[in-house]
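Researcher: Here's my situation. A collaborator sent me these components and asked whether they could plausibly form a single complex. I don't have experimental data yet, so a predicted model of the whole assembly would be a useful starting point for our discussion.
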Amino acid sequence: MADIPQAGSRRPRPLSPHMTIYRWPITMAASITHRATGIALAVGTLYVAWWLVAASSGPESGAFELFRSISSSLLGQLVLFGFVWSLAYHLFNGFRHIAWDLGFGFETRTANILSFLIYGLSILVTVLAFALVYAGKAGYFR
Amino acid sequence: MTSLETPRHRVEGLGSAHAGVQQFWRLRVSGAALGILSFWFAFVALGLVGAEQVPVLSFLQHPINSVLMGAFMLVSAYHMALGLREVVEDYVHTNGLKIFLLLLIRLLAFTAAIAAAVALLRITIA
């Protein structure tokens, strides 16, 4: 039985500490956030497709008014905030992924600083975008 | 020299498919394209958030805008299909659920891409 060398051994194999044991390094959180925002953006893509389909439907169908009433509700605005932040984060961290693929940014200090910076910058950009809209400088919310 | 492969491993035929580099590149290239298109999209979204139907239609009827929006949606659907596939292949290990999710991802990505393309055609031709 060459395929299971441990068969018959009663002693449990040693396990390495896992996610629940470690205090998360910032780079680990940043990596997980990249995946989570990616999944959120997949939902966001479907959301934008809905917006386009609603816009293409005739005004008598009421499809666009339905989209507007749902997206401008409090929950809709929260979803939009999450979507914008996810896009900003995934975009900035995506550029870092390209830098990694080219061989840059692997030093521990650089990776840590960039992780903090990407979190901060993505939140800043999102808040700024919403401030512009709520101040009436962009978009159609009044 | 005799192979170190076990007979069972040879029969199962599992292992590297030697096609991973292509998938790696596709994800990177579509991601780089989205890196450029996202700036345009963010600017558009900022200007059109909460807009009524008429300004949205007049914006999308401009050929440059409809082409860029179409490109953004198609590349997004492509990148989304590849990215979600990577997540499922990393974390889902039961065959039935894995195949179901991989098919579901393709269904959603194709639906989003086709729906967006048809919607943009209706808007620009109308």
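Model: Some features of this prediction you could bring to your collaborator: Helices of chain A lie at 26-56, 63-71, 74-101, 108-134. Residues 26-56 of chain A form the longest helix (31 residues).
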